[in-house]
Amino acid sequence: MTCKGEEALIKTMTHSDSNNGGPIRLRSSDFLRIFWRSSFEQGSWNFERMQNVGFAYIMAPAINRLYPDLNDRKQAMKRHLQFFNTAPIMQSLITGVVLSMEEQKANGLPVSDESINSVKTAMMGPMGGFGDPVWLGTVRPVLSAFAASLVLTGFGIWGPILFFFAWNILRLAFRYLTQMAGYRRGADIINVFNTGIIKNAGNATSIFGTFMMGAI
User: Fold this and answer.
1) Which domain holds residue 176?
2) Fewer Cβ atoms within 10 A, N terminus or C terminus of the chain?
3) Gap between the Cα atoms of 87 and 136, Å rounded
4) For the chain, which ranges sit under pLDDT 50?
5) Residue 85 confidence (pLDDT)
6) What's the predicted TM-score (pTM) here?
7) Claim to verify: residue 159 and residue 70 sit in the same structural domain
């Protein structure tokens, strides 16, 4: 069962250009549109399935490109209206992986709906556990403290301006780079989680953040 917002999103699906019988590939323009949409994921947050409508909205340009048949397109949109919730800044990595899997599925490889949703589910928790403490608990407080120190030492408005540009440049660059890394690696990127690199990176960032807060 879908809510009115989900039904409206499905109805927006339009026809795309034919691939002329060759492999269907996402284009640079598709990646940029998906990247732009990722900033608005939280705009349709809901208590039932949280970020599901936002994720489907992000995926819409890719689905339009990959699935010429309108029924296939609707099915793909419904696939991404399942429950989804993670740290917003880490969502782009998951999006990249899902883009890779959707492209494979569109080209006839044996990728099931269940495997796509399973990968999303498997990545939600680790990405949430990494993104919130690193970005919201370390990077942003360090930048805020540095900006505040500039204000207190006489630089006035330059402190908030520096914070605004530094935070958004880091955030947007990270989002785009992780989106493309996820697309290139595909579902194989899940193997990285088993090496402990996510946990170690999170711990190292927290230690660095504590050191910087003390220094500032």
Assistant:
1) 124-215
2) N
3) 10
4) 18
5) 94
6) 0.81
7) no
